[in-house]
Amino acid sequence: MKCAICQNIADSSAGYLYESDDWLLRHSVETNIEGYLILESRRHILDLSQASEREIDSYGPALALATRAIRKVTAAERVYTFTLAEAVPHLHVHLIPRGKDMPKAWRGRGILAYPLTPTVNTSTLPEVCKSLRQELRRQILIG
């Protein structure tokens, strides 16, 4: 079986919001949470134990950049970050904004039970992604 993330990278089909030598950032389409981003390692590795020194050095800045952009664009009170790599065994980090209106049942560890349907709103996603791209660029420029 081919790795779905490696296939997306090869096809350039994921619509990345940010790209570096080591990391790619895209909006998740698996839920209806606007601003839910996925940070993927460009190289096929399972977790940070397999990362190169360069990948480790660039991981923190990429994660911080994404988290700041999410908070700015979505006004999230928190941004949950975690990695499992069970369904797709390729290092990818989930960055999920938690706004003040998020029901208590889905806060904290409850986010893992968040429903996968409905999926992302395809009519508003382009505008959300545009705002995220602009914020990511702004942050990189003021770096």
Structure description:
With 143 residues, this protein is an alpha+beta fold. The chain has a single domain, classed as 2-Layer Sandwich (HIT family, subunit A), CATH 3.30.428. It has 3 helices and 5 strands, in the order H-E-E-E-H-E-E-H. The protein has helices at residues 4-11, 53-74, 125-142; strands at residues 18-19, 23-27, 37-41, 78-82, 92-98. A 5-stranded antiparallel β-sheet has the order 1-2-3-5-4. The longest helix has 22 residues, at 53-74. 24% of the residues are buried.
Which tags fit this structure?
34% helix; 3 helices; alpha+beta; 17% strand; 5-stranded antiparallel sheet; 143 residues; HIT family, subunit A
Set out the fold topology.
Elements: H1 4-11, E1 18-19, E2 23-27, E3 37-41, H2 53-74, E4 78-82, E5 92-98, H3 125-142
Antiparallel strand pairs: 1-2, 2-3, 3-5, 4-5
